[in-house]
Queue: 4 jobs
Job 1
Amino acid sequence: MPEDATTAQPSPAPAWKPSTLAVTAGRPAREPDQPLNVPITMASTYVAGGDLEYGRYGNPGWTAFEDALGALEGGRCLAFATGLAAVTTVLDLVGHGAKVVAPAHSYTGTLLQLADLESRGRITATLVDITDTDAVVAACEDAALVWFESPTNPALELADIETISAAAHEAGAYVVVDNTFATPLLQTPLALGADVVVHSATKYLSGHSDVLLGAIATNDDELYAVLKGRRDLLGSTPGTLEAWLALRGLRTLHLRVERAQANAQELVRRLGKHPALSEVRYPGFGGIVSIVLAQGAMAADLLTRKTKLWVHATSLGGVESTFERRRRWKAEPGTIPDGLVRLSVGIEDVDDLWDDLRRALDDLR
Ligand SMILES: *Cc1c(COP(=O)(O)O)cnc(C)c1O
């Protein structure tokens, strides 16, 4: 089985900035009559004798997406069927009965995955307050893997990735950062000490709410080979069309994130004074804002049904603004306020977003 399949292409100049890399990385070789983009290759098998051999081991379209995301994260990347498939594959790195440390306020799919593995005796999970650096460092002591989300979902807490990574490495543990919320434009965890970055490419990377896809990035060649082997063996490989759509989305990542962030920052300024809210949470960057309704869950549910522009839907990171009350999901931890609504701010006009949201909030009184 071939270890890894690559397409011929110019490697991006290392000095290029992230927005240039988002546009240029993962292109075919510049030759007359070659398309500018890697075409969609629908193939379950290839003529024998080359690197690819079979559709589960590689596809030129996956490689193009992986090269582009790898260039942005500063490592080598592997695409997966979904974000959760990437999470599953990475958690499978640890041995039987190993201790995994993770934030108590992680993505619910990750929490469910950890609980399921623990209930079957596969691992032990220690859930921590990721903002309490001393406590997390202490928890790292006998850990095999330390999992981060920063900012956390949907509490939007920040972790001291550098300090905790150093402690985790001292204990011989892998350091994994789910970088879905920040994107490599706002945070590059490999540079902060992480061994593996995980993405739900379903969110900002693809950006148009039409694709499920996951990815990992690492700058450790050994880990890359292990994870590639696991992906091939578990069959958690991406769809060909999905990888193509995700790369198309990635080309405008910087524009979308810039605009969503600018909109989010302006909305946070305006929301701060609204009497219907008891709290506005924002980590200072990115396009996700969590608001807490002073009157609790019923007011929050009402809000999500009163808007014309904001769409009531789960997920995040699309061009369109969406929101939901997170505790409507049973798996959401009880320490998340019942009346917390997570806003995924899109790239619409900020005045239209504000008018729609303010009107709905005013109506609650
Ligand atoms: C959505 C999400 C995931 C899971 O990704 P899917 O593509 O839905 O499988 C993992 N982590 C975070 C932070 C997410 O938001």
Job 2
Amino acid sequence: MPQTFEKLAAPGVQRLQPYLPGKPVEELERELGITDSIKLASNENPLGPSAAALRAIEQCYRDIHYYPDGSAFKLAERLGARFKLDPACLTFGNGSNDVLELVARAFLTPDHSAVYSQYAFAVYPIVVQAIGARAKIAPAYSETDANMPLGHDPEALLGCIDATTRVVFVANPNNPTGTWMDTATIKAMLERIPPNVIVVLDLAYYEYLDDELKPDINALLARHENLIVTGTFSKVYALAGLRIGYGLSHPAVADLLNRVRQPFNTNLIAQAAALAALDDEAHIQSSVQMNKAGKTELQNALAQMGLSCLPTMGNFITVNFQQDAAPIFQGLLREGVIVRPLANYQMPTYLRITIGTAEQNERLLAALSEVLS
Ligand SMILES: *Cc1c(COP(=O)(O)O)cnc(C)c1O
């Protein structure tokens, strides 16, 4: 019987590898007989949400018998103002992953292709293949590239674009590598992508980029009507569990995305919390500062342990152990430190480690010394 169902599935779905989430922390602790574990596996903000977001949740949760505002009107106005865009430029998603899926549904068919880099974010292949569209994977820079090991290679991405290509996905910085392109490179690449190809610039970690690496989103959108910038409340805004993200684009593109969107895809609590989180600049600042300090500390300590890390502009560090990293991952688990193995990215010697609080980083380093000794 299960085989029959497999054959009934759309061809793209049959070929899909399911996204492998980590086990729930409680389950893991039970299995390993440990308590007090720390989760550095999914690039969440270790400081947690802003107090203002929590207050906004308390003020609205008794209203959940009502449907949410399907257009997320207030949030569209607020985000529009932030980016100096008309609210008609916004598309909201149940996480920015939802927006990525809207892009695939609106623009791809089995006769079309999407281009993304090797080692790009795992959700791109999922949304492309679910539609049955063809994925064209651009080779990344090599592991030994002095500039940006395993990073997106713009020439390779451009080289993959052909007459069938409708969408190019670019993550800046990319997850799981942490690698990035500078603003001049992004601009030059956009100039060379045909205007009938949609470019998704996934800026999930935008706030963590060094200031000189932050592209001028408004200027890029003004120049490129084929551009969709995606953003999320899951990372620095620390609302991953509520699921809310957005796309910024030309209103004509947003109109198409909103046509395929479920009418109530973002929930009432998420909208209220996102609105409050946006205004809490101080919380964002301290989150970014803590990440910066933790990044330097971890990079130095890991280098001292003789480990090589990919360069990163995210809130995570991807470490190459130059050996199968699965036993190291398991060893860290037994020490109560949960990180992310990357075998599903064809990076079996790497682990991705979210930068934590100072205390969490100390625990990670102590656990790592223990496991590697
Ligand atoms: C975490 C992440 C996202 C955010 O996903 P949400 O659905 O908004 O939680 C998007 N893109 C990349 C590259 C990410 O790492």
Job 3
Amino acid sequence: MSEIGPKLGRRSLLAGIAALGAGACTKISESDAGQDLIETAEAWHRTAHRSLASRQALAPEYSVADRSPTFKGNGSVSVDDGFYQQQVAAGFPDWKLEVRGLVEKPLSLSMADLRALPQRVQTTRHDCVEGWSAIGEWTGPQLSGLLDAAKVKKEANFILFRCADTLYGRVYYESIDMVDAYHPQTIIAHALNGEPIPQKNGAPLRMRIERQLGYKQAKYLTAIEAVASFDQVGDGNGGFWEDVAGYQWYAGI
Ligand SMILES: Nc1nc2c(c(=O)[nH]1)N[C@H]1C(S)=C(S)[C@@H](COP(=O)(O)O)O[C@H]1N2
Ligand SMILES: [Mo]
């Protein structure tokens, strides 16, 4: 994705493509400069189109035999909060995932609600920028289904993930654009290797966004929020590590 800047989401891409509409071409095409402009625009359109198509490709999936024997816990490995601790002990009977923000029908879903939705099972490799990887099998509903059920409004450009944990005194959060939000391998996972997600790996719910690096895979998920922009969230860079250490917002692999 080097051709497109990190914050250029699907909507701006589409707006750019729409702006190349034929109507504007009649006058400027009569001059050489106009012709150059059109050729440049066409080349840009081709590049943009190819990039968008490549972002919809699937991440590699592996077999059961490829699973890592242990899946390291990294960053927060628990949540320092009484309600969370009581819920872990009881198997998360009262845990709720909210779907809110720029949606017509906000949702509040229990673990049972999430398990009752159509499930995707995917064995994928998690790559952390700190230099380790692990292969695991994740199960959960696709984010696209929840966004459709909540009826995301046209003004939404990004999906924000709210987490229960704090790290270095800050609440962890992340965000992605609509291309990744609707990617078939973007799921809200509740199981790892066929078991409820262990506490260290983000119990009871964590994101799997398989075309991006480890720090985008928000653990201890409490809410999914559709937003027009993330300028006013945290320090405005779209995620915890983006704010704290200047990591790239778009962490595509
Ligand atoms: N809520 C939350 N999500 C998080 C983190 C975290 O500290 N808190 N760490 C991130 C990083 S850097 C990585 S590599 C993975 C680690 O996932 P794991 O603990 O299952 O290995 O979670 C990501 N998501
Ligand atoms: Mo990471």
Job 4
Amino acid sequence: MYISNYCAILLLIVALCFGVSQKSPNGCGYDVNSEPRNDIQHACVQYILDSVIQALLKNPERRFIYVEMAFFWRWWNEQSDDVRETVKELVNDGRLEFISGGWCMNDEGITHYNSIIDQHSLGAEFLRDQFGECARPKIGWQIDPFGHSREVASLFAQMGFDGLFFGRVDYQDYQYRTMTKTMEMVWKGSANLNRESWLFTGVLPRVYEPPDSFCFDQFCNDQPVMDDSSLHDYNVPERVQAFINAAHDQARGYATNHIIMTMGSDFQYEYANVWFKNLDKLIKYVNAQQVNGSDVNVFYSTPSCYLYALNKAGLTWPSKTDDFFPIAQNPHGFWTGYFTSRAALKRYERYSNNILQATRQLNALSEINLRSSEAMGVAQHHDAVSGTEKQHVADDYAQRLSQGIDIATDVINSSYAKLLPKESGLAPPLVQFLCHYSNISECLPIEGQIRFTLTLWNPTIHPVTYYARVPAIMQYSIRDPTGSIVPSEFLPIPNITKNIPGRTSSANYQHIFKTSLPALGFNTYYFEMIHDEKIEKKKVMMTQNETCTLENEHLRIEFDDQGNLHQITNLEKGIATSFTTQGFYWYTGFPGNNSRSEFQASGAYFFRPLMPDPQPVSTMRSITCTKTETVQSALIIFNNWASQEVNLFQGSVAVEFEWTIGPIPIDDYIGKEIVVRYDTDIQSKSTYYTDANGREVLERKVDYRPTWNYTVNENISGNYYPISSRIWIKDEQRQLTVLTDRSEGGGSIHDGSIEIMVHRRLLYDDNEGVGEPLNETAFGTGLVVRGKHFLILEPPENSALIHRVGAQQLFMNPIATYALPQNSYADYESLYRQTWSALSDSMPLNVHLLTFDQLGPKQFLIRIEHYFELNEDEIYSQSVQIDLQDLFKSLGTITDLIELTLGANLPLSQLHRLDWMTNNNESSHVETTQQTHLKDTMVMLNPMQIKTFQVTL
Ligand SMILES: *[C@@H]1O[C@H](CO)[C@@H](O)[C@H](O)[C@H]1NC(C)=O
Ligand SMILES: *[C@@H]1O[C@H](CO)[C@@H](O)[C@H](O)[C@H]1NC(C)=O
Ligand SMILES: *[C@@H]1O[C@H](CO)[C@@H](O)[C@H](O)[C@H]1NC(C)=O
Ligand SMILES: *[C@@H]1O[C@H](CO)[C@@H](O)[C@H](O)[C@H]1NC(C)=O
Ligand SMILES: *[C@@H]1O[C@H](CO)[C@@H](O)[C@H](O)[C@H]1NC(C)=O
């Protein structure tokens, strides 16, 4: 299972279609009738490809599918021209087919849509450039992920896929679907978009395994087909009968007389001939039974061939509007632990994407054209950080991300070398560097410097207010781009931060100040150390273990002298919610040997608490409140491994809860899963809402599944959903929304409560492939993780504006780079620009610039997005129009504009997807856009719509 969630593995599959065989002309696409598929492999992918290519050449009927481009790309780069030509022929003949074609098979629960789109685009671009239209993937192949997201279906549909197949569903759902022959359906991928988001979807019969006893890989122990009748081990009749039985068994769960069998599995096909030789024989002897009345016709096939057969079957199909989360493997094995596993890596992935997107913008806006799929490819490698790999693999992953960020830093430097100097040639380039440990108030290169600059790049197309925190040993004066001294706080760094293992900084203080950043642009702040006598003492109020109220113009947050959060009031809207409790609890991870469902352990994949009631991490807490003009905060320490700092910034409409957890103690030999609870008086009626991949939000109900009669075996874990960006509960007057800075798992187990798991440390493996307990350490002790939640209390009708904008700013945070100029401020000011924006006009607030990248000289790729849902907000849920030319103000005039599919590998006017009918006689047909080259740069966006363009200047 750890396979597909990590790009280091590739999936190949050999699929067999059953049914009436049609004679097929050669050629790729839907006319080809036989199909292979592939299965999985990792370390030896290169040998698999070598061996599969040879095997395919031996028999033109053989088929093979290939899924993950990261590996194919590596292999391809090492091949001779001859081999490449051969492979191209196989692709053009439809004998080797690319399926999905992303850089990797992305996880669906914890991934962010921005990264899913990017990693698919990267693979699609490679395939288009090397192989052309024949290699354009038309099928989504998600055979391994641990649950399936409606948003992914919607994105895949918009990439132009005709269908999606996957392996894992809840075991109860599986039973119900096989019983009712509803394993295949039309999935309506979006509650906002139209039929362009619908995707035909099929659940595979055996995840991705072949029928029992038909694994023919060198590593399998099943009997090969022995067809020399002179030998005593001749077994054709038994093998043929067993296969025909398996086909009939499988057919019972499916609606048509076509079935798909996946012939392959993890790490197979290294000696492809073993598989293919046996399949050749099996096909021959099974089909020979037709003369004796057998109704089974078997041939090599691919998922697209199978899909095409279903499409031509002329049936109507059930539809689905919810998703496949969470899923259980068995009554006590819910795939809900991985929503939180490796919390630090999950944040690192989101942070890397933030840097990647900003880097692309800078690259494009400075027209340095440094786009290289290698540089970006490395940074993309993280798209599936499920946290379910061995420690050394997770380390490798983090290292790749770090290398990607290093490359990005070079691009950022080249861009700023063009954007910063007022006149090129005069100003010496300034090395800009990132400080990755800002979250623990550490930035060693600026420590003790007399002067330095902080440049903040705002990657959104709207002006933002951002509170900067800069660690310092001494006090500095800070100048904004106009040269004015910025009012700034100079506050001690709390001991809990200073004590975080691995922190080596000697900075005991931090500057906190407000910045107002221009849209798609930067501001530079110039820091200069102040001499003691000039230090102005600002008012700071501090209390310990006293009642304390944090308040700004929007919100009031009240704590008692024991550090309990009592109430949050929205002063403007005149609503309040009281809290019965708020704080950290832990579940005991179930210690089990996995021999039966009852003994299922909690592990990297599964969350299974031993008892339904979590323990509070402490009975007492200390509270320290600090109030300044800029920020008011309450630091609440629960024990020596759990604390939170609640921050309310001036002007802010959300409260920041920065939690710090770890090292989670295990000296009592108990694995612990730490949750934060926000328990309120909101009457949520067993209903809560969680987002899918950072976009649309789905309604959830306690102990309920929309499409089958759900039998509850796990009261907690069965109610956990992925929270990629937000969760909320509400009643008539009030909605409490929590935004997260990374993917986490959680739900509303009790009315009025939001529970989010933030960190886990476990002592048992859950037997799904990791093979070691999730027991993360760093600096010789358990890993400490820090993260943020933002709480928003608003009337339901006012909530969307704040959580939509808030979540957008959270994943597209300003990118802070520092530099060490030698110049006095006057010199600096004369040489360098301190503020700049790519835009002249303000953009509508409901539009997000999702992608801004340079494709080549004067050629750009952009994606713009309406990021509100229908009926969420009176104003911003309306359709919106923008002029693309406005985005290119600083670059030139648009001379050509082509709208592309979401994956950017095909003009939208050339997309023709297969049409399907639902049981309610709704057709999935979408009218194809006629025009390829658009005349008008004005673009209309409907709620949740993303449009992709190739722009030439
Ligand atoms: C068909 O059945 C007949 C009679 O049982 C048998 O002799 C023959 O071998 C069978 N053919 C095949 C291809 O199995
Ligand atoms: C922080 O730690 C220092 C050094 O151990 C100690 O002197 C100080 O009292 C601590 N401060 C607080 C607020 O606990
Ligand atoms: C605050 O309360 C906590 C918990 O009761 C206690 O451990 C701590 O010493 C108190 N601190 C002060 C400064 O009173
Ligand atoms: C669930 O159970 C109820 C009552 O037994 C029944 O009416 C309903 O059809 C069932 N629904 C499904 C989807 O099986
Ligand atoms: C967890 O990690 C700690 C620190 O490396 C180690 O001492 C302990 O044995 C590990 N426990 C398990 C069950 O892996």
